[in-house]
Amino acid sequence: MAEASDPGPPKVSIGAPPGGPPEHNSGTPSPGGSPEGPPQGAPEGGPQGGPLEGPQEGDNRSDHEVYMEALKGLEGAPKMKLGLEDVKKVAAALGNPQDKYKVIHVAGTNGKGSVCLKVASCLMAKGN
After folding, report:
1. In the 3-class helix/strand/coil scheme, how is 51-102 assigned residue by residue?
2. Up-side HSE of residue 50: CA atoms within 13 Å toward CB?
3. pTM recorded for the entire structure
């Protein structure tokens, strides 16, 4: 009987960031480019000098002027809606699994160790 060969560790592929263009790993040219170089119109060596990197070479504007111009470009952009409504909908669709766990969440910059020690001490004194 022939043994199955071990395929080795799984191959991990890291793709483009969320919302970004898909990564092309096939060796075929990406739109406007070739596998040997950047897409047409892209600077050699990758993107450089975004609006929040301050004035570029030959630009006589101050940092303040560059930043203010970048902020003006955000006018009319859709507002981000902050909140937990979507998270609550997903949790509800999953049957609110968070309600089944007995957890004490300790967060913050300082004092987590001492808070956890005190909580553990209280729980042990109570028999938990």
Report:
1. HHHCCCCCCCCCHHHHHHHHHHCCCCCCCCCCCCHHHHHHHHHCCCHHHHCC
2. 5
3. 0.32
Contact 23, 16 (CB under 8 A): yes
Q: Domain residue spans in the chain?
A: 101-127
Q: How far apart are CA 123 and CA 128, in angstroms?
A: 5
For residues 65 and 16, give the distance between their C-alpha atoms in angstroms, rounded to a whole number. 32
Helix then strand count (H, E) for the chain reads: 3, 0
How far is it, in rounded angstroms, from Cα 39 to Cα 33?
Answer: 4
Decide if 70 contacts 52 (C-beta within 8 A): yes
Strand partners, 105: none
Computed from CA positions of residues 23, 27, 28, 34, in that sequence, does the dihedral angle turn out positive or negative? positive
**Interval 14-46: pLDDT, tens:** 454 455 554 444 444 444 444 555 555 555 555
